[in-house]
Amino acid sequence: MIVEEIMNDEPYTLAPTNTVVEALKLMREKKVRHLPVIDEEHHVLGVITERDIKEALPSSLRDEPNSPVFNAKVEEIMVKNPLVGHPLDFVEEVALTFYESKVGCLPIVSGGKLVGIVTTTDLLYTYIELTGATEPGSKIEIRVSDTPGILFEITKIFREHHANVQSVLVYPDSENTQNKILSIRVKTLNPLAMIEELRKEGFDVLWPNLPGVSL
Amino acid sequence: MKKAVFVYSPEQLGYKFSDTHPFNHKRLTLTMDLLKNIDALDDVDIVPARVATEEELLLAHDPKYIDIVKRAGHGELSEAQCESYGIGTEDTPIFENMHEASAQLVGGTLTAVDYVMEGKAEHALNLGGGLHHGFRGRASGFCIYNDSTVAIRYLQEKYNARVLYVDTDAHHGDGVQWSFYEDPDVCTLSIHETGRYLFPGTGNITERGNGQGYGTSFNFPIDAFTEDESFLEIYEKAMREVFEFFKPDVVLTQNGADAHYFDPLTHLYGTMKIYREIPKLAHKLAHEYCGGKWIAVGGGGYDIWRVVPRAWSMLWLEMTEQQLPTGPLPQAWLDRWQPEAPVPFIPTWEDPNPLYEPIPRKTEIEEKNTQMLTKALHIIRNENRA
């Protein structure tokens, strides 16, 4: 999956000469926390975040309703030359950038111009969709050894039961690096026959178990 | 006026996927026989279920889907041809005359509605209904037509009523919730095992309705291994506060009996105690808010021998204001059915105590449920303060 599939391609923007008050107003109205600052040719000059503004303002505990910061231009407090992304970047790469650089958004730039924005919230929603939680189904978790062909052995069982698999996630096993945990969503109310079959084939089906306790 | 009527027709037993399928309406026969054995169900209280008309089914379903169900049940379609409609799957296989049988279950719930709304009975019970997973154009989770959705639309159109739907099945009442997600005049309340593992996966507290209907969907997802006390605490608080908030004209309760320890498909670890208490409060609140107008339907329940007959008997006994029994089950009933049952019966109305080994981390599970309740009710508690 690439960035242009998940980005917001009509982001709200500011000009460098907009004031901090205007930036705050736009953030509150549109319920966003990040705004790219662009020039007339749509080149990205910077990014201003809700947090940048809060840090620039005097403490709300002090009585300074007319702080000069409110009328300052956004170019004075924005982050200049921000990290940017490209529409063809992979979503996983963007996730890594967010995680490592601790930024909350990436302006997406193509041909030197701003074409969209991706935030951590967009990425989180993409993750929710990946788990398959949008269609009715049951979830089964299985601990397997980390060896080739295991997934085939398991999906064979779902196939025999005509069960439609909605998503497959593979996690590392926190207890043993030789293992992986498979989390599979299947379109059925009654997974019992499949669970029984999996156990019969020697697979370690983790659910239903108490969290942290083996029954 | 009668206290309550028991809607039933033998044709409802025709809703049968196969001998091995977990959804088995032999439950109806077992429950009625148990009630008759204790002289709690008289023939004059039983009224036949009518068949829902095509026009009534269209209140909740697409014409194309109804046509597929009809033709599948008459052997005119292969599994592959109906799979995209959720039919011909392991959950919802094709069976003979599936349209007719399904329409009879819906009709039963409509019969119950008419008895209550025409003032012929205070309450009415259709244990054959409660098929809450049915969607507009697709079968799901053992449910073909969604009798509750049809009945609520029918209540709106024919009686102009404001309806509260309460679903205590262990699975989320997704079909009914989505049908009224944008409707501010229908409130849905579902208590269910969290969808993190269990079908259908939805029913998060953040599902609150949409548009005009925002704030009229309530979900209370409880943890696996919840047990009686925590289940009932959530149920009681949720019921009282949602009734007070919504002030319905009539209440429709879905009484799936699959939250029990013995149920093979779920993990909530309830006992008979919850099935004694659930109808009591529904009954009380129906009188407090709805002038008594209470329609109840069945639902899930996959231990049809040890759990469902006792649980559903309690529901009928409470509706008819008969004493809830304790002590041994009638010997004649046990003798009649034990040879057929694959498991030994629990010979008493109550479950043995304890029914299972104590659950580790019980207090943490209860704490988590309480936190969930606070978050789920936050929206109406805030409104009350304002």
What's the topology here?
The complex is a heterodimer of chains A (215) and B (386).
Chain A lengths: L2 H4 L13 H11 L3 E5 L5 E6 H7 L17 H4 L1 E2 L10 H11 L3 E6 L2 E7 H11 L7 E8 L4 H11 L4 E8 L6 E8 L5 H9 L3 E2 L10
Antiparallel strand pairs in A: 1-2, 2-3, 4-5, 6-8, 6-9, 7-8
Chain B lengths: L1 E6 L18 H12 L8 E2 L6 H4 L5 H11 L5 H4 L15 H20 L3 E6 L20 H13 L3 E5 L6 H6 L6 E8 L23 E6 L4 H20 L3 E5 L17 H19 L3 E4 L10 H12 L11 H7 L24 H24 L1
Parallel strand pairs in B: 1-2, 1-3, 3-8, 4-5, 4-7, 5-6, 7-8
Number of E-state strands of chain A: 9
Main β sheet profile of chain B: 8 strands, parallel
Major sheet: arrangement of strands of chain B: 2-1-3-8-7-4-5-6
Parts with pLDDT < 50 across at least 5 consecutive residues of chain A: none
Tell me the overall shape of chain B: globular
Strand arrangement across the biggest beta sheet of chain A? 7-8-6-9
Radius of gyration of chain A: 24 Å
Strand content of chain A: 15-25%
Oligomer: heterodimer
